[in-house]
Amino acid sequence: MGSGRGAGSETVRDAMVTGFNHTVTCRGEQFHVQTEDSGREHPHIVTLLYRGGVIIASQKTSYADILKMEKLDEIIGDLMKEQHKQMMHRLKGGEFDEKIRLCCGREWD
User: Fold this and answer.
1) Does any domain span residue 29?
2) How far from chain centre, in Å, is Cα 109?
3) What is the mean pLDDT of the chain?
4) I want to staple 32 with a disulfide (CB 3.0 to 4.6 A). Which of 13, 19, 50, 72 is the partner?
5) How far is CA 65 from the centre of its chain?
6) What is the CA radius of gyration of the chain?
7) Does a structural domain hold residue 2?
8) Residue-number span of the structural domain to which 59 is assigned
C-alpha cells in the first residue's frame, strides 16, 4: 500500500465544513476521495472515490433525522470527517480491489 498521506483540503462556508478532498496513493496508484455536504435542503453527506475521473465507490448518508439538533454544523462536520476517513481505510484495506481491477484492466495486487 502507499504512504496513506496525500494532499488534502477542506472547503469552509460560513464556519461550517462543506467538503474534504484528498489525493491518496495506494499500491503506487493515485486515487481521489471527495466528501461533500449537500446542505440542509438536501440533508445528506456524499463521499466519492475516484481513479482517473472514474468513480470506483460512493457512500451517501442522510442526516435528515438530526436536523433539529443543537450544534448541527459541528455534528455534520464530524460525520463528514468520519465518512471520509472510512472511505480511505476501505480503499487501503482492499475492499475495492476487484472494482479497481475491472476499472484499470490490469493486475492489482
Assistant:
1) yes
2) 22
3) 86
4) 50
5) 21
6) 15
7) no
8) 8-100
Give the separation between CA 32 and CA 51, rounded to whole angstroms: 6
Q: Which is nearest to 66 in space by CA: 55, 82, 77, 58? A: 77
User: How many domains does the structure of the chain reveal?
Assistant: 1
Task: For residue 89, give every residue at least 6 positions away whose Cβ sits within 8 Å of its Cβ, in sequence order, or none.
Answer: none
Instruction: Assess if residue 55 is contained within a domain.
Output: yes
Q: Which DSSP string corresponds to 18-60?
A: EEEEEEEEETTEEEEEEEEE--TTS-EEEEEEEETTEEEEEEE
Closest Cα to residue 80, out of 22, 14, 3? Answer: 22
Q: Which of 2, 67, 5, 7 is nearest to 37 (CA)?
A: 67
Q: Is 4 left (phi over 0), alpha (psi -120 to 50) or beta?
A: left
In a domain, 45, yes or no: yes
Q: What is the pLDDT of residues 5-31, one digit of tens each?
A: 345 655 544 445 679 999 999 988 999
pLDDT tens digits, 73-97: 999 999 999 999 999 999 999 999 9
Q: Residue 27's pLDDT is what?
A: 87
